[in-house]
Automatic annotation (TrEMBL):
PANTHER family: 5-OXOPROLINASE RELATED, HYPOTHETICAL 5-OXOPROLINASE (EUROFUNG)-RELATED. The lineage of its organism: Bacteria, Bacillati, Actinomycetota, Actinomycetes, Streptosporangiales. Residues 8-185 form the Hydantoinase/oxoprolinase N-terminal domain. InterPro entries: ACX-like_C (IPR049517), Hydant_A_N (IPR008040), Hydantoinase_A (IPR002821), Oxoprolinase-like (IPR045079). This is Hydantoinase/oxoprolinase family protein. Residues 206-491 form the Hydantoinase A/oxoprolinase domain. Pfam families: Hydant_A_C, Hydant_A_N, Hydantoinase_A. It comes from the Bacteria. Residues 509-675 form the Acetophenone carboxylase-like C-terminal domain. Signal peptide: none annotated.
């Protein structure tokens, strides 16, 4: 039994499985378990995973959680009835939006925007107005706010209200007063205030962010409350943190007041872990490649740091939240293979956790990527999830034959290979978006493969794009949970200033920075971060005057006009291939408050004798993409491989919860920490 409070526990919910990982901070030992997601009662899936792991929660000092609950609530339209209170005459800001058509529907003349999250009768305008400089033009009508709240709550039945006024980012007093009035009259109603979430210009984007916050907040609060209660009943008394979409974590209390910051928290855990790996393994330039049950997520780690963004997109709704620049496509292990006019498609529809792929035997009838992997011989039906879940290979083969292979006139194996070909083509497109289209040569990066299906496809992607090396960590299907264990506590703050760099009052900017830093320090103190572990990072959001898009550059402690411009021009040239003589405009000042935490240590293992034969389990026929034919694959037990071991493909490395597929023409080496390095034979020699 470990000493009290020497354990950390991370749990990540995906669309299909829940991953739980335990770390003993004294011995650096890691244990991992995987259970099925419970979509109807998601907190139960988390508690099931903890139970399966067998962790004594009374010994846990830290529980950190990544969840897609808010994301799924929006995608599936399961949020609570939401209302909007805004300025009189501007109640349609959210409904109209930017009036733009998505690029993939540009020539679709029958395109219709998805149904809004808020009905028009659930929007209300009240008197009161600030001008573009934040000066009061008309005082807030308190009686009008009360009447608007009465109509929305008593007549329209909303249970959550978003408050967003024009130009409030310059002076939030009207918004805060309106929120006070609503809460006083209807304390049971959830109220989200735009300037409590983000203080930046662009009314539509700020309104959208606030609406999404209000839409998911009641559900998120109930979920966290039930999870906290369930953990407490099982003896947990440590700290409860939740991952943020832009990296780092926050206390559960803060998360309940800012649930929009959690919508991409699951993928963020993997990015945090990847940054740690980049530093520990000396591979500063990494491409993360995360394939789970429902989606594929890719991100660039450049010079040891993930590429960040400050606006995300959830369906067609913009979100002004810090996030990693992740490219996500609906392509995962549960993605359905289907035909459209004789063409094979893969995703974005997913079989999810219930019923799941056909091979799960839970009632699924449509073949998926996982079913194709079973047919190709990559997944051993008797060893899936370390033997805790037997797969029905015959059912997978029959479904693929009936719905894909037969109509196309192919064998089931050829159809399964086609599923992987289509998935690979979609993957190449996603990776090109964040590399080639951003001025990066993917051949200069290592590919970090994780997620349950990441190591299945990563060696094929590397061969297709000329990437020299694939890195496969331990327990790749739980890597996002492992990454959460190294997450700092983070909070982000911003202010819109809207001035040119030449005209900017640097002393005034310094004053704004200090005001924002005061907010950041207060937030970290409220989350019990010791002063000695607090780091404040300054940034400018800049663009050439007249441009639409902006870039982020780091600001030093001493503000220097020439240094700021040089940093912007270097960033612009790296991204777009050129710099200009145009005037530079400052849009926003940003401060990231970081509370440093202790990270899991990667422990080097003693080298083995170089004979990988000790780990050879068997040989099995499977499809080899190197020769486009069935071949005999050597099957290795990952747990028995030691540093210094090396072997050539075709091979399969089985570790119970995931399988690394190594086609012919590629070679595996085990580095000093036990990570697998998969390289093209030419690159390895």
């Amino acid at each position: 039994m470990p000493d009290p409070k020497h354990l950390r526990l991370a749990v990540d919910i995906g669309g299909t499985f829940v991953d739980a990982m335990e770390l003993d901070t004294r011995t650096h030992q890691v244990r991992f378990r995987k259970t099925s997601t419970t979509p109807a009662r998601p907190w139960e899936g988390v508690l099931d995973a903890v139970t399966a792991l067998g962790t004594d929660l009374s010994q846990v000092e830290l529980f950190i959680h990544g969840t897609t609950l808010g994301l799924n609530a929006v995608l599936e339209r399961r949020g609570e009835p939401t209302g909007i209170v805004t300025n009189d005459g501007f109640r349609d800001i959210f409904l109209i939006g930017r009036g733009n058509v998505p690029a993939d529907h540009m020539y679709d003349f029958q395109y219709e925007r998805p149904e809004s999250l808020v009905l028009r009768r659930h929007t209300a305008g009240v008197r009161g107005r600030l001008d573009h400089r934040g000066r009061v033009v008309e005082e807030l009508d308190a009686a009008g706010v009360r009447e608007a709240a009465r109509v929305l709550v008593e007549e329209r039945g909303v249970v959550s209200i978003a408050v967003c006024f024009l130009h409030s980012f310059l002076d939030p007093s009207h918004e805060r007063e309106a929120a006070r009035i609503i809460r006083e009259a209807y304390p049971e109603v959830t109220v989200s205030v735009s300037t409590d979430i983000v203080r930046e210009y662009r009314e539509y984007e700020r309104t959208s962010t606030t609406v999404l916050d209000a839409y998911i907040r009641p559900i998120f609060e109930r979920y966290v409350d039930r999870l906290e209660r369930g953990l407490a009943e099982r003896g947990f008394g440590g700290r409860f943190l939740i991952m943020r979409s832009g990296g780092g974590s926050m206390t559960s209390a803060v998360a309940k007041t800012s649930p929009t910051h959690t919508v991409l928290s699951g993928p963020a855990g993997g990015i945090v872990g990847a940054a740690h790996i980049a530093d520990a393994l000396g591979r500063r330039d990494l491409l993360t490649f995360d394939i789970g049950g429902t989606s594929l997520d890719a991100c660039v780690i450049e010079h040891g740091y993930p590429v960040a963004a400050y606006e995300a997109q959830l369906e067609h709704f913009p979100l002004l939240i810090p996030t990693y620049d992740i490219r996500t496509i609906g392509a995962g292990g549960g993605s359905i293979a289907w035909l459209e006019r004789g063409l094979l498609k893969v995703g974005p529809q997913s079989a999810g956790a219930d019923p799941g792929p056909v091979c799960y035997g839970r009632g699924g009838t449509r073949p998926t990527v996982t079913d194709a992997a079973v047919v190709l011989g990559y997944v051993d039906p008797d060893r899936f999830l370390s033997g805790t879940m037997e797969l029905r290979a015959d059912a997978a083969r029959a479904a693929l034959d009936e719905q894909v292979a037969g109509p196309l006139g192919l064998s089931p194996e050829a159809a399964a290979a086609g599923v992987f070909d289509v998935l690979l083509a979609r993957t190449v497109g996603a990776v090109r978006q964040i590399t080639v289209e951003r001025g990066h040569d993917p051949r200069g990066f290592s590919l970090l493969a994780f997620g349950g299906a990441g190591p299945l496809l990563a060696p094929l992607l590397a061969a297709e794009m000329g990437i020299g090396e694939v890195v496969v960590p331990f327990a790749p299907s739980g890597f996002s949970a492992w990454g959460m264990l190294s997450a700092d506590i983070v909070d982000d703050f911003s202010r819109t200033v809207m001035t040119t760099l030449d005209d900017a009052d640097l002393d005034g900017l310094e004053t704004v920075f200090k005001d924002v830093e005061t907010e950041a320090v207060a937030s970290l103190e409220a989350q019990r971060v010791p002063a000695g572990r607090t780091v404040l990072e300054r940034q400018f959001e800049l663009r050439y005057l007249g441009q639409e898009h902006s870039l982020i550059v780091t600001a030093g402690r001493d503000l220097d006009r020439d240094a700021i411009r040089r940093a912007f021009e270097e960033t612009h040239a790296a991204r777009y291939g050129h710099a200009m003589d145009n005037r530079v405009q400052i849009l926003n000042l940003r401060v990231r408050g970081v509370g440093r935490t202790d990270r899991p240590e990667l422990v080097a293992r003693p080298p083995g004798d170089g004979d990988a034969g000790r780990a050879l389990l068997t040989r099995r026929d499977a499809y080899d993409f190197g020769t486009r034919a069935t071949a005999s694959f050597a099957v290795y037990d990952r747990a028995l491989l030691e540093p210094g071991d090396a072997f050539d493909g075709p091979a399969l490395v089985d570790e119970g919860t995931s399988t690394t597929v190594v086609p012919s023409g590629q070679r595996v080496e085990v580095e000093e920490h036990g990570y697998l390095l998969v390289r093209l034979v030419e690159a390895a020699s």
